[in-house]
Design a protein that fits this description.
By secondary structure, the chain is mainly α. The chain has a domain of about 240 residues: Serine Threonine Protein Phosphatase 5, Tetratricopeptide repeat. Helices cover about 40% and strands about 5% of the residues. Helix 6 runs antiparallel to helix 7, helix 13 packs antiparallel against helix 15 and helix 14 packs parallel to helix 15. The radius of gyration is 22 Å and the shape is globular.
Length: about 500
C-alpha cells in the first residue's frame, strides 16, 4: 500500500521541480510538518501543483522540452480534430493524432499520463493534510477546494483522452481513479461512468469550499461550476449543465468580450472580463521555439516551427462571415507579393490563440474556462431539451459580440439546420484550437470529416487524392465516433507495471 511518507516525498520533489518564479521554500528550509499544516506551506504545495501544468519536468530520467501538460493536452485534443491540418510528416508523436497511428509507447501520451497522476498525487497530499488538520479556517478551506477542483479537472481530462465518451459507452473502461493516499498502487481502471461520478463529486465539493477567490489563475467556485457545466453536458444531464452555466453567467463576475476587445482576449487572459480560469504564464515561462504551446502552430519566421495550420475545413465554415472578429486568430503567411504561402500544397494559415502575451510570439496564459463556453453549454443543453428559442438566443449573444450583429438567428433556424447543428457550428468557430472540437463531435455521435488535403492521410500524396470522390476509400478522411482510435492507448508504462489494467482495443 502507498504510505503517507511516500506521498509527502513525492510532493516535495514536485515542489522543487516547479517554476522559479513561485515563492516556494527549498526543501532543506521547511519541515514536512510545516509543509502540511501551515497555510503558507499548503499554499506553496498547491502552487507547485499549478506549476506542473506548465513546467517541463524530468520524465524517464530526462527533461524533454516538448513535454508539458498543457502542450500535450492541446496536441492530443486539437491535432486529432478537423480544425488543424498537418503540413508535413514529422517524427514528433503529435503526428499520431493526425494519422490515428497511435501506439501504447508514444511519448506524448506516456508523459501526459505520468504528469497527470503526479499532479493528482500532490493535491491528494494537501487534501489529506488539510482534512486532518485540527484548525480549519476559510483560507484552508479555499486551498482544499482548489485541490478538489484540480483533482476533478485532471481525472476528467484523462478520461476524455483514454476513455470512450460517456454518451457512447459509459460502462466501458475509463481511467484509474486516485482519490486517496492510502490505496493499492495496483488498481484496475474504473468505468467511464464511475470516473464521471467521482469528477462531479469532487467538483461539487470544490464549489462548496471555495469562498476566497485568489484570482483567475487559481480555481474558484465559478471555475468549479464551469467544470460541472462541461462534465454534465458531456454526460447529457442537460438540465444540470444549464443550471451550472446559469450560476456562472449570473455570478456577476464575468462578461463577454465585445467586437472591439475580443481580438485581445487571449493575449490578455489574466485580465480579460471573460476568463473564468487560466494557467498563468510569465516571462520566465516563455519557452520560445522549443516547448511552447504556440511553436507548432505559429511562426514569425524565427519564433517557432509553424508546421500546423488552420484547416481549409474550418476556414470554409468561417468564410460565410468575413466580418467575424474570430478571424483575427487565423493569420495567413504571405510572401513579398502578398500571396498566401503554401507548404506541401497546404495554405499556411497560422493560429495565434497562444501567442502575443506581452508581445511575445510564444507566450500566453491558456484559458481553461471562459464565459462564452457557458453560453454555448447552455445553448447545447437547451437544444437537446427542445428549447430552440432559448438556445438560439444564447448563440445570438455570442454572435453580437463577435461582429455578427447583422447575422443573428433571431429565433429562426437556417434551412436544413437543427438547433443542435447551429450550436455545434458556433462551438466549432468560437472554441477553435482550445481543445474542444473532437469531444464535441464524438460525444454527439457524429463523424469527424477530414476530407481535405493534409498529412493526416497516411501514405498518400496530394496528387493521389481526388476530393470530388467519395472519401470512403481513405480511412483517415472521415472518422466515425465508433472508431476505436478516437481515444488513445493506455501508456505501456502503466500496462507493464499494473497487471489489472486492461488495454484499449
Amino acid at each position: 500500500m502507498k504510505t503517507k511518507i511516500t506521498a509527502i516525498f513525492t510532493l516535495l520533489l514536485m515542489i522543487t521541480s516547479s517554476c522559479e518564479d513561485l515563492s516556494v521554500l527549498p526543501t532543506d528550509a521547511t519541515s514536512t510538518e510545516t509543509l502540511v499544516t501551515t497555510t503558507a506551506g499548503l499554499t506553496n504545495a498547491l502552487n507547485g501543483a499549478y506549476a506542473l501544468f506548465k513546467d517541463h519536468i524530468t520524465f524517464n530520467g530526462t527533461v524533454d522540452q516538448n513535454n508539458m501538460y498543457l502542450r500535450q493536452f492541446y496536441h492530443l485534443s486539437d491535432f486529432a480534430s478537423d480544425d488543424i491540418v498537418n503540413g508535413q510528416v514529422t517524427t514528433d508523436p503529435l503526428y499520431y493524432s493526425f494519422s490515428l497511428g497511435h501506439s501504447p509507447s508514444q511519448g506524448n501520451t506516456r508523459y501526459f499520463w505520468y504528469v497527470s497522476y503526479k499532479i493528482i498525487s500532490g493535491v491528494n497530499t494537501v487534501i489529506d493534510a488539510v482534512e486532518k488538520s485540527p484548525e480549519q479556517d476559510a483560507a484552508k478551506q479555499q486551498l482544499l477546494g482548489e485541490c478538489y477542483f484540480i483533482r476533478a479537472f485532471c481525472h476528467f481530462n484523462l478520461v476524455r483522452l483514454f476513455g470512450k465518451p460517456y454518451s457512447v459507452e459509459s460502462e466501458s473502461p475509463g481511467i484509474i481513479l486516485r482519490t486517496s493516499l492510502n490505496e493499492e498502487s495496483i488498481k484496475a481502471r474504473s468505468t467511464v461512468a464511475e470516473v464521471y461520478s467521482s469528477v462531479i463529486a469532487d467538483a461539487e465539493k470544490a464549489a462548496s469550499l471555495m469562498t476566497q477567490p485568489r484570482g483567475v489563475q487559481y480555481a474558484s467556485k465559478e471555475a468549479a461550476w464551469a467544470l460541472l457545466s462541461r462534465v454534465n453536458l458531456y454526460k447529457e444531464d442537460n438540465q444540470k449543465a444549464i443550471d451550472y452555466a446559469n450560476q456562472v453567467i449570473n455570478s456577476g463576475r464575468f462578461s463577454l468580450e465585445t467586437t472591439a476587445s475580443y481580438p485581445g482576449l487571449f493575449a490578455k487572459a489574466t485580465t480579460s472580463n471573460e476568463t473564468i480560469f487560466c494557467v498563468a504564464f510569465t516571462a520566465a515561462d516563455d519557452y520560445g521555439k522549443f516547448g511552447s504551446i504556440a511553436s507548432m502552430i505559429y511562426s514569425d519566421g524565427n519564433s517557432g516551427w509553424g508546421e500546423e495550420f488552420a484547416s481549409s475545413s474550418l476556414r470554409g465554415l468561417m468564410s460565410k462571415h468575413p466580418e467575424d472578429v474570430r478571424w483575427s486568430y487565423i493569420v495567413p503567411s504571405k510572401d513579398a507579393g502578398g500571396n498566401i504561402q503554401k507548404k506541401n500544397g497546404i495554405e499556411m494559415h497560422y493560429i495565434t490563440k497562444f501567442s502575443f502575451q506581452d508581445g511575445s510570439p510564444n507566450l500566453s496564459s491558456p484559458i481553461i474556462f471562459r464565459l462564452a463556453e457557458m453560453y454555448l453549454n447552455r445553448a447545447e443543453a437547451q437544444a437537446k431539451l427542445n428549447q430552440t428559442a432559448a438556445s438560439l438566443a444564447d448563440l445570438d449573444e455570442i454572435r453580437k459580440n463577435r461582429g455578427l450583429q447583422g447575422s443573428v438567428y433571431n429565433g429562426t433556424l437556417p434551412a436544413g439546420y437543427t438547433a443542435l447543428d447551429a450550436v455545434l457550428e458556433e462551438r466549432r468557430i468560437e472554441l477553435a484550437f482550445e481543445g474542444h472540437r473532437t469531444y464535441d463531435v464524438f460525444r454527439n455521435k457524429r463523424s469527424l470529416d477530414k476530407t481535405y488535403w493534409g498529412y493526416h492521410l497516411v501514405g498518400l500524396k496530394e496528387t493521389d487524392i481526388d476530393l470530388s470522390r467519395t472519401p470512403s476509400g481513405y480511412q483517415n478522411m472521415v472518422v466515425p465516433y465508433t472508431n476505436p482510435r478516437i481515444i488513445y492507448y493506455v501508456p505501456i508504462d502503466e500496462v507493464l507495471s499494473n497487471p489489472l489494467v486492461v488495454q484499449n482495443p
